[in-house]
Write a structure and sequence with these properties.
The protein has 471 residues and is of the alpha+beta class. It contains ten helices and 23 strands.
Length: 471
């Protein structure tokens, strides 16, 4: 009996040994098969944008601090000083690239010591996250007037799944140093986001993790106009194209509650990282801008058709555009409805040629606005006629009825609770909806219209929104 038990044990040990040998032999083939598996297809996706609207100081900033100490001579622009631009990406990834614009400059823009890191608070960075950015392998770049430049890819290796704090909602700090005088600065006036500036004629501070060398603030984005992340190839970008109501006038400073922001939250909940919302609005913008903008800039920037290529079509991964614009054509330029709707058709044709779906958003009321040019019965009549075109002409692929979401049918104005200004307080101007109004607008967008094309099973559980970081 004892001998039989020992024999059984011996046979079992031999079987285990044989299994180990088999595993050792076949493991290399298994690992090799995994390493040869094709990686998921990826592409660049624009996750943040700030449409270049003109040379500083032409623009309509909100809650702008005094800028004369940072930029004493607007024509000279910045001079030997460091910038720290704060932005919130709509999607996180571990590989990024940045676009800088000198669209409205009259001389070469020389940038050096470009860095990107994770904002901790104010102008301070999370220790160890600041990463150097290069251009063609070099640490500086010269951007000719009228042009823009993408950086080399940069690894954001702090955005990893094993860390402790989720990145969704966190912000990046893009720091760079302007060498010499920049000349006229290309900017986006209405950031509704605080960024940080060093004093002019100073040392380089881009790599500093502390905000100590950045005593001045701005509520605008300057030179930086787009930010891309590498993402699954099925990721879709939705560009919100328009004027101050898309740009967020009267929403909350640093609150990220413009209607595109609220829409972004909705698509995150429904699609995860498969749909990205970016804002291509400019305060004061028109469908048909002044033909002589280059010689005589206005605060509203070049017209939508003039800026369409740079601010929408050149962005990475755009599949859909939501276009809300026209009230400034009527209020500021006294344009006809026929002129604006012809502009719509021209823009739609260009976007369709790129395979982009165009959703028309109806114009909200400005009746009796304190902005006198926009508050008249004549402008309101044109607005209503335009909305009928958007709803019924078939020119757009679909409609988002912002007017229906915000109108007070008894008065013809936007609803009372949507009037007070959320940025600076006060009663509001009866043209720009507040935080509550923007929320109502975003909630009427049919999310099924934004479904990404060519979805794959691997994209359904996109992990980019699960990226984490240690703080």
């Amino acid at each position: 009996m004892r001998a039989r038990t020992l024999q059984t044990i011996q046979l079992a040990l031999e079987a285990v040994f044989a299994l180990c040998i088999c595993l050792a032999l076949f493991a290399p083939f298994s690992v090799n098969a995994q390493t040869k598996a094709k990686p998921a297809k990826q592409k660049w996706v624009t996750v943040w944008a700030a449409s270049a609207q003109g040379p500083y100081p032409f623009g309509n900033p909100s809650a702008q601090p005094e800028q004369k100490f940072a930029f004493p001579d607007p024509a000279a622009g910045a001079e030997d000083q460091s910038f720290r631009m704060i932005l919130r990406p709509a999607l996180w990834g571990s590989r990024a690239r940045l676009r800088f614009s000198n669209a409205f400059g009259n001389r070469a823009l020389v940038l050096g010591d470009v860095y990107v890191g994770l904002q901790r608070y104010a102008g301070n960075l999370v220790s160890g996250t600041n990463r150097s950015v290069t251009f063609g392998g070099k640490g500086n770049v010269s951007i000719p007037p009228g042009e823009w430049m993408w950086s080399d890819p940069v690894d954001l290796n702090f955005a990893r799944k094993s860390a402790a704090v989720y990145l969704d909602g966190r912000k990046l700090a893009v720091s760079f140093h302007v060498t010499g005088p920049s000349g006229p600065m290309t900017w986006h006036a209405k950031a509704l986001q605080t960024s940080y500036l060093s004093a002019p004629k100073g040392s380089v501070h881009s790599r500093d993790e502390s905000e100590a060398a950045f005593p001045y603030t701005t509520a605008s984005w300057i030179f930086l106009d787009a930010f891309d992340m590498m993402a699954p190839a099925s990721t879709a970008v939705v560009a919100c194209f328009g004027d101050s109501i898309t740009d967020g006038t009267a929403s909350t400073m640093n609150g990220d509650d413009r209607w595109p922001d609220v829409l972004a939250q909705r698509v995150r909940e429904k699609y995860g990282g498969r749909v990205v919302i970016v804002n291509a609005g400019i305060g004061g913008n028109r469908v048909i801008g002044p033909a002589d903008y280059a010689q005589n800039p206005i605060p509203g920037g070049p017209g939508a058709l003039d800026r369409l290529e740079r601010d929408v079509l050149s962005l990475s991964g755009v599949q859909t555009v939501i276009w809300m614009e026209g009230i400034n054509d009527y209020g500021a330029a006294s344009a006809s409805v026929e002129t604006v709707t012809a502009g719509y058709r021209a823009g739609i044709e260009r976007m369709h040629a790129k395979g982009i779906k165009v959703i028309g958003a109806t114009l909200t009321s400005g009746l009796n606005s304190t902005i006198k040019t926009h508050g008249t019965e004549e402008v309101d009549a044109k607005r209503k006629e335009t909305n009928e075109f958007i709803r019924r002409s078939g020119a757009f692929d679909a409609v988002a009825d912002f007017d229906a979401a915000t109108i007070d049918s008894a008065t013809g104005e936007i609803k009372l609770e949507m009037q007070p200004n959320s940025t600076i307080g006060g009663p509001g101007d009866k043209l720009h909806p507040n935080r509550a109004g923007y929320k109502a607008m975003a909630e009427v967008v049919d999310l099924s219209l934004l479904t990404p094309r060519a979805e794959t099973a691997s994209a359904v559980r996109d992990s980019n929104f699960g990226a984490q970081v240690e703080d």
